[in-house]
Amino acid sequence: NCVLSTHTLLEHTDVTFMVDNEALYDICRRNLDIERPTYTNLNRLTAQIISSMTASLRFDGALNVDLTEFQTNLVPYPRIHLAVASFAPIISAEKAYHE
């Protein structure tokens, strides 16, 4: 779906965060030890990543104080506005408490 919508996203958005469902499934299986991930698991993982990326918009700070500056800081060129999100470490709650 991401590939099919790329042209429309480039034309009609200012900042785009694309998420790959298969990558989310792999993260849930390998890192979070969820044998059969559900959409709830995928949505919670996506929400955590987006929440972390937009924390500077929701809390006081000198960087990214509004959406315009958020876009300016993430988009180097007007046609290159497909941001890549990275989030680490991703470990299960059991491993976090064990370590």
Automatic annotation (TrEMBL):
<protein>
    <submittedName>
        <fullName>Uncharacterized protein</fullName>
    </submittedName>
</protein>
<dbReference type="InterPro" id="IPR000217">
    <property type="entry name" value="Tubulin"/>
</dbReference>
<dbReference type="InterPro" id="IPR036525">
    <property type="entry name" value="Tubulin/FtsZ_GTPase_sf"/>
</dbReference>
<keyword id="KW-0547">Nucleotide-binding</keyword>
<dbReference type="InterPro" id="IPR008280">
    <property type="entry name" value="Tub_FtsZ_C"/>
</dbReference>
<keyword id="KW-0378">Hydrolase</keyword>
<dbReference type="GO" id="GO:0005525">
    <property type="term" value="F:GTP binding"/>
</dbReference>
<comment type="similarity">
    <text>Belongs to the tubulin family.</text>
</comment>
<dbReference type="InterPro" id="IPR002452">
    <property type="entry name" value="Alpha_tubulin"/>
</dbReference>
<dbReference type="GO" id="GO:0007017">
    <property type="term" value="P:microtubule-based process"/>
</dbReference>
<dbReference type="GO" id="GO:0005874">
    <property type="term" value="C:microtubule"/>
</dbReference>
<keyword id="KW-0493">Microtubule</keyword>
<dbReference type="GO" id="GO:0005200">
    <property type="term" value="F:structural constituent of cytoskeleton"/>
</dbReference>
<dbReference type="GO" id="GO:0016787">
    <property type="term" value="F:hydrolase activity"/>
</dbReference>
<keyword id="KW-0342">GTP-binding</keyword>
